[in-house]
Every structure is written in C-alpha cells, then in structure tokens.
Amino acid sequence: MSRIAIIGAGASGLTSVKACLEEGLEPTCFEKSNAIGGLWRYREMDNFPDLASVFKSTVINSSKETMAFSDFPPPREFPNYMHNSLLYKYLTMYAENFGVLDHIRFNTSVVSVTEDQSGSGRWRVRVKSETNEEEETHIFDAVMVCIGHHAMPHRPTFEGLDEFQGETIHTHDYKTPGKYEDKKVLVIGIGNSAGDAAVDVSRIASKVYMSTRRGAWLWRRVGEGGVPGDLQFSRVLTFLPDGMVDRILEKNLQKTLDHNLYGLRPNHKPLSAHPTVNDDLPNQIINGRVVIKPNIKRFSAKSVKFEDGSEEEVDAVILATGYVFKFPFLPDLKVEKNEVSLYKNVFSPYIGHASSMAIIGLVQPVGSTIPIAEMQSRWAVRVFKGLTNLPSKEEMIRDITLKKQSLSKRYVTSQRHTIQVDVLPYLDDVAMEIGVKPDLMGTFKRDFKLWVKLMFGPSLNYQYRLSGPGKWDGARKAIETYWERVEAPFHTRKVDVPKNKSVLPQILLISVLILLLAYWMLDW
Q1: Would you list the DSSP string of 293-306?
Q2: Same-domain status, 282 and 341
Q3: CATH number for the domain including 303?
C-alpha cells in the first residue's frame, strides 16, 4: 500500500486524507498546530502566530450548498452563510464521518521534503514534533502540500509610514475590534479582508477611512428575494461570452448599489478582478462610519495624506494588502512574484517525480476553495496510483504558459490574481481527468429532469459524484433536495401566507373598461 504524506490539516488537507482513503492509500497528515481547520479555526494569539486565522466575526462568502463537499451535504439547520465557528464544525463533522482524524499527527511541523536519493521516486519528509526535540525522517511514495496561500502577510511600503506614531498591523494579526474604540482607523485595501475589517472596526471606532487604488465591484451574499446570491450562477452561464456575463453582472451590481455614488466603481469589469463580498459595507458608508478614500500619498506622525490632496488624522492603520507565499520546506518549488508554475494548479513539471508531488488548494477562485481542493485531491491520488497519467513535461509547460497568458489578459494586475480560477470551468477541466464530469448529453437523453437541474440550477459539487470513480448513490438526491436545506434555517417562525385571489375578474373588468373607452373615443 502506497504511503502518502499530507502537509496541513485545513480543509484541503482533510479532503486529501479522505481521497487517499477512498483509493486505498495510506495517508499521514502532519499538522503544525493542535487542531484541524487551518484558516477556518479561529484562534487568539497563541503558539502559532505565523498561521493564518479568520477574524472572530468572519462569515463565509460562499453559501453552504455551493461550498459543500461533494458527498457530504451540510446540515439542514445550518445557516446558508455560516459563521466561521459553524464552518469549523462542518469540517469536524466531515473529518469524523470519513475517519480522517485517525491519520493526523498534530503539533508536528514539516522541516523539509526532498527526493529520496535511492532513485525509487519516493520522498524523504523530515518532521519535528512539539513533544520531541529530535527530528524524524519518514519515506513516502507521494506528497500532498495543503498549506494554502495565506501564509506570510504582504506589507507594502508607503512614504512616511515609518514616521507614523500610531499602531500598524496587518489583517493577518487582526482578531477583534476592541482596541479601536473611539479611534480613527485607516484600512488599506478593498478586498474581502479589508471590507470585513472596515465594517468590524466601524461599529465602535469614531471613524474608519478605507483607502483603495482602483475600487471594486461589491458583491452581496443576499441575492434577489433574500436567497443566497451565489445560487443564481448556473452552468448555462458558462456558455455565454465573458463580455455578455460582465454586462449582466455590472447591470445587476449597479442596480443593487450605485458604485459611482459610493466612490467604489473601478475601471475594470466585474469578471476582471476577484470579487469583494460584503453586505454591510454600504450600510456603514451611508451612515458615515466608513469613508472611502483614494490611494495614499504619504504618512506623517499622526495623519495620512491622500493622492487627491485631502489629509486625515488617524490613530491606527490596518493593512489589508494580501499575502505572499512560498514553500520553505520544499526549495525546489520556486515561487516568483507570488506565482508558481503548476499544471492545472496542482503538479509542477519543474521538479523531479512530478507525478508524486501535488499542491492542493493553492487557488484564489471566484467562489469557494473547498470544491476545488476536493477535486484536485481526487485527481492527485489517481495520478499517484497510475490510474491517470500526466502529459509530458513539454505539454504541461505549454498548458501553463497558455493559462498564464489568458489570466493576464482578463485580470487586472494585483497581488490577488496570481492563482485565479473560475470554479465551474476549472472543476469540469479536472473532472475530465478523473472521469467524473457530468455527461450532459447523455443525461439530456436519459433523465431530462436532472439535466434541467444541472444546466439551469445552481452549480453544486454533488454533480461530480453522479458517475465515474467515487460515485456516490446519494448525489442525485442531494441535488434534488438542496432547496430544502437552503430553506430550512429560515423556518424559525410560522407565517400564514394569504391565499392568492384570482385576478381573472380584474382582468375582465379592465378589458371591458378599455373596450368602452375605445368605443367612446371612436364615437367621439
């Protein structure tokens, strides 16, 4: 039985362990901290200050049905947009259900990963346990790296910032807003962390300024009619040109919020940048708690001057300026300008034994990372077993180059757009490698009702368990019953809905009046 090393027990690591077990492999997951969850386990400052963690108030940006694992629907009673504590609970339930926890070594850091010199194609993984001062070396047939990209805070320099006398922190270190009570705070950035921090702090600060170079399109969790907004994205949209989808999105986003009026409108189209999801930010702008400002010109001891010439006194600065990542235990995997060259964002053609080293979850999707990490891990373990083959090194490099060129044409240059993917097209692409992409033509012929749901309903991860390797008998039911799980948490108060009266009498009356009016006008 092949032995697989998995580095990190966040969402990507958990689904990687499960994928190994599903294919009869022997996984060992090394987790630096004392618990699963990775980014989604909230922690105060503890013994792992270098590990990323959500704010105490963080709520997920993808609804529970669109971010769910493909064979583990979320509980009916869970809210559609879960607080981080509930997402952590969901991950725990998933790990317990599939026996993942038995394969995790907690409080164990990976020091290095190197090719075994015996020529066997295996990997030497050197680890250090918190309870043992001596390092251990283990031999594995393959390695799955699941550390994500929220590793090291990106701290850009600003003129005069070293002269600023107030506190400056990165959102990596932000937890709660308590210390900002009655203070003037500057948040630098316009991404999801920036929006969340600005809103969180603005509830108790005297004023929050939000500085952005280019603005952003603000997406909402709450969609039309109050249902989760991401449920409106169906497969049929992938058949439309990007320009058309951009126009539809821009019209809807402007209808919800006039980005010109609020000083948020960017020069780029909605699909040319990673979405900023925030329902509360417009409320805090309209009541004056948050003020949108342009890019920064320079700092002084107690104030900041902006490029439009305005100047504001501030007591503290929060940098929401993204992250840089690297693989310190794997020096052969090069990262340049926050970019790493991976075939389909998983395999590197530039390292030895490329087919036995997989990078899982290193993406910045327009949607949830969980379905992508799961699909990547399902593919990787089949490559490890030799059930699926990678193309030649030259073909992989050619594919990487074409994808990078396409990415550069579509997205604005940003720290956030180096590992960008669109969820559904990407999932379909990798699913084809495994043999689990839904057979739309066959489904149309055999099961028209299901075909309609796959084409026009929300894009749900369960569709990749309908057939092929890893088929799950509950996949169709999960697709058919998704609305029951969406609707369930709203049913906390019974509402008597009045019966709709027939409108036929009114239609007849209006028709008669129109005819009488026409007759009168003709007679007149």
Answers
A1: E--EEEE-SSEEEE
A2: no
A3: 3.50.50.60
pTM: 0.91
As a whole number of angstroms, the distance between CA 437 and CA 379 comes to 12
Alpha helices in 266-416 (DSSP H): 281-286, 370-384, 393-410
Judged by DSSP in three states, 104 sits in: strand
- Alpha carbons 504 and 245: distance in angstroms, whole number: 38
Kindly state whether residue 182 falls inside one of the protein's structural domains.
Answer: yes
- Helix (H) / strand (E) element for 216: namely none
DSSP assignment of 423-463: HHHHHHHHHHHHT-S--HHHHHHH-HHHHHHHHHSB--GGG
Lookup: tokens for 136: 């251990």
3-state DSSP call for residue 222? strand
Distance CA 176, CA 294 (A): 26
> In this structure, is residue 280 part of a structural domain?
yes
Q: Record the tokens describing residue 394, joined without a space.
A: 């030259």
Structure tokens at 328: 């310190």
* DSSP conformation class of 155: -
Q: Where is the domain boundary, 321, 344, 364?
A: 321
Instruction: Say if 391 falls within a structural domain.
Output: yes
Is residue 404 within 8 Å of residue 337, measured between CB atoms? Answer: no
Average pLDDT over residues 181-205: 97
Separation between Cα atoms, residue 51 and residue 471, nearest integer Å: 35
Based on the fold, state whether residues 92 and 136 are members of the same structural domain. Answer: yes
Structure confidence at residue 417 (pLDDT) = 46
| pLDDT confidence of residue 333 | 84
**Measured distance CA(228)–CA(64) in Å, rounded:** 9
Q: Residue 502 to residues 244, 451, 495, 513: CA-CA distances in angstroms?
A: 39, 34, 21, 19
Q: How many contiguous H segments (helices) and E segments (strands) does the chain have?
A: 13, 22
- pLDDT tens for each residue of 345-389: 999 999 888 899 999 999 888 889 999 999 999 999 999 999 999
Bridge partners for 104 per DSSP: 29
Q: How many whole angstroms separate alpha carbon 261 and alpha carbon 394? A: 50
Q: Which domain holds residue 264?
A: 155-321
So what's the pLDDT on residue 450?
96
DSSP annotation of 83 reads B
Answer whether 147's CB lies under 8 Å from 169's CB: no
Gap between the Cα atoms of 475 and 465, Å rounded? 6
Q: Which residues pair with 142 in a beta bridge?
A: 4
**Alpha carbon of 214 to those of 189, 267, 273, 310: distances in Å?**
9, 7, 11, 17
Burial class (CB in 10 A: 0-12, 13-18, 19+), 226: exposed
Q: What is the pLDDT of residues 87-144, one digit of tens each?
A: 999 999 999 999 999 999 999 999 999 988 777 789 999 999 988 878 999 999 999 9
CA distances from 12 to 149, 172, 374 (A): 12, 20, 7
pLDDT-derived band at 502 (thresholds 50, 70, 90) equals: low
Structure tokens at 438: 């839904």
Residues facing residue 469 across a β-bridge: none
